[in-house]
Amino acid sequence: MKPGLPLLLILATLLPANLNGQKELMDTILADTAFTGTSYSFCFADAITGEIIFSHDAERNLSSASVMKLYPTSVALSLLGPCYRYSTTLCIAGDFNSKRGILDGDVIIIGGGDPALGSEYFREHYGDVTGTWVKALKKAGVRRIRGRVAAAESIYDYSPVPDGWAWGDLGYSYGAGVYDININDNKFRIFVTGKSEGEPAVIDSAEVYGCGIKLTNSLISSGRSNRSDIYTAPFSSTVTVTGTVPADSSIAMRTSIPDPPLALLTMLDAAMRAAGIDITDKPGADRVSLDGRKVLIINEIDSPPLADIIKVTNHESVNMYAEAIRKHLGYEILGKGTFSAGSEVIRHFLDSIGCEPYEAVMLDGSGLSSNNNISALMTVRLLVHMYNSNVAGPFVSSLPMGAVSGTMKNYFVDEMFKGRVVAKTGTITSAKSFAGYFTTNSGRRIAFTTFANGFTVPSRMITDNMERIVREIILKY
């Protein structure tokens, strides 16, 4: 798939006459002074043959936003398989007197990296996680624990967020970190009521996933818009909320859990005590070793198939899932539970299919970092490969459909285009992207990627231009 000639020569050779209108449209967009300073990069190719049918500055590296999620999700489907499942284990470690129901030891959660454990996206699959574990403990005859609820040593390192993420993003649900033990997508809601104009706002309550976290409130009631900020850091015990919230109204602030393993331990501890199980000590953030201890497995919870998790990742653009998948690739393939190991796996895979990944800057696997730099050409090469792979079905179905689902629901809404485009979208400050597939009026299947960076106009003006180009190819190719 690597071009053997300079890209412009390829385009001059392959550009069919019926796409001349496409070039004219591109020239019109570039000439519009409203978009001065905007960098565009487009690439369109036949999804089966890989033949490039139209492109503009396709080799330029630009910030990709959430199109970056296509990289860890495609590689994980290819290397781990769509049926792969994570597993989280509950065990007891120590001396257990089954007749008296007394454990001289600890109840321990062994994390397997499941990013979706207890997620609202998979409510029917998981049910009540802590409730399930309490029932399993009682069935095993555990009545008293001369120890505590604890977490086993992590299969990952202790760097939950990528280096490329901004500090200001970490407090929000979209900035949640990755741990070997995750719960509820590592987020919780804080319920706030704005009072009269200029008065302090009040925190009414917080979801149970935020149990044990100290909430520092500096919110002021003002105006009609939510202009609040949330600050926390991995392994912190505090969350600070500041700024303004709408006066005389109530809102929910979606916040990242600073220490998800400890949050789950605390929830399980409370559920066990409520069920009448006596526990001597309180849970702590430190990890415990299972080496040399008597271990009895009480319960194992398997995740949904990886294909289902990836579909949510791409449909709902869940940053934490994408980063968890990247880190787990490092753990499973290289035996190293780090982001860098996961990126190494992704780069080797891309290199093996001719994507030239060493020309790109890939600081995360989700696109939240504004400093990622990849090209439309490389992304289209990946899309073409995936379309012809043995996991094409689950990969293509993981992409939301225009005017129908996920983050594509508000795009390509005209009846004649509805359902004809499936793509991953991406949006961060001054960066907008699409990448996926569509079918032309002649029946050809096209893989495409569009990037725009550095714009100062509303992002909808940028996406309108991107849609115009895709529509032109759908109608005339």
Written overview of the protein:
- The protein is globular.
- The chain folds into 2 domains: 7-82 and 307-476, Beta-lactamase; 86-304, no CATH class.
- The protein has helices spanning 7-14, 20-31, 70-79, 123-126, 129-139, 260-274, 306-316, 319-334, 339-352, 376-387, 392-397, 459-476, and strands at 39-46, 52-56, 61-62, 87-97, 102-110, 144-145, 149-152, 187-194, 202-206, 214-221, 227-231, 238-245, 249-256, 278-279, 287-288, 295-302, 374-375, 421-428, 431-439, 445-453.
- Strands 4, 5, 6, 7, 14, 15 and 16 form a 7-stranded mixed β-sheet that branches.
- The chain contains 12 helices and 20 strands.
- Helix 2 runs antiparallel to helix 12 (459-476), helix 3 (70-79) packs parallel to helix 8 (319-334) and helix 5 (129-139) packs across helix 6 (260-274).
- The two termini are 21 Å apart.
- With 477 residues, the protein is α/β, with parallel strands linked by helices.
- Strand 1 (39-46) and strand 2 (52-56) form a beta hairpin.
- The longest helix is centred in the last third of the chain and has 18 residues, at 459-476.
Nutshell version of this structure?
The protein is an alpha/beta fold.
List keywords for this structure.
477 residues; alpha/beta; 2 domains; 7-stranded mixed β-sheet; 5-stranded antiparallel β-sheet; 20 strands; 26% strand; disordered N terminus
